[in-house]
Amino acid sequence: MTDTVGRPEVGTGNLIGRIYYYIYVRPIFFSLGIVSLLLFLTGCYGGTRPPRIGKPAPDFVVQDAEHKVTLSQFKGQVVVLNFWASWCPPCVAETPSLVKMQQRMKDKGIVVVAISADEDDSAYHRFISKYGMDFVTVRDPSAKIQHLYGTIQIPETYIIDRNGILRRKFANAFDWSTPEVTDFLSHL
Questions:
Q1: Domain spans of the chain?
Q2: Bridge partners of 78?
Q3: CATH of domain 61-186
Q4: pTM for the complete prediction?
Q5: Which of 101, 128, 141, 184 could form a disulfide with 119 if both were Cys (CB 3.0 to 4.6 A apart)?
Q6: For residues 3-42, b (16+ Cβ closer than 10 Å) or e, as one string?
Q7: What letter would DSSP give residue 186?
């Protein structure tokens, strides 16, 4: 049996009708479902900035066997607060450009403060030595400071301006050697 346009009727039990359903009708419903899901998900994003951006950065104190670091000790400087770990592949990828950026920008009052989630002290020190991390690093295996900032993945980096205001957040590995980064940091 066919409909008025000459297409096989769906549901008549014949093979052609079932083939027509799976070739033409079912993909349309599937596509509509995907479109609806995407519209729903984009509706969840309100277009606002991540929490805390534009607000004062939470102060912290973290101490490991070698260093005691507080955010307030960097008052008047631009702080690039980086959360990382030696076992994290994106952290490995990001570190060389972070080191170069710090070397290039330190005379402009820009300081990298790197907080590691490493539990293994020797892995932490090997990583620092291997990548020539000549900026402030401290180990926080409890991830207390990460939780304070709402960090859920590493690497994550927060830019804090000279007045202690959070200005930007970078999630995942980032190339810190781009001219855009240099320009952005220079104008804070």
A1: 1-47, 61-186
A2: 110
A3: 3.40.30.10
A4: 0.72
A5: 141
A6: eeeeebebeeeeeebeebeeeeeeeeeeeeeeeeeeeeee
A7: H
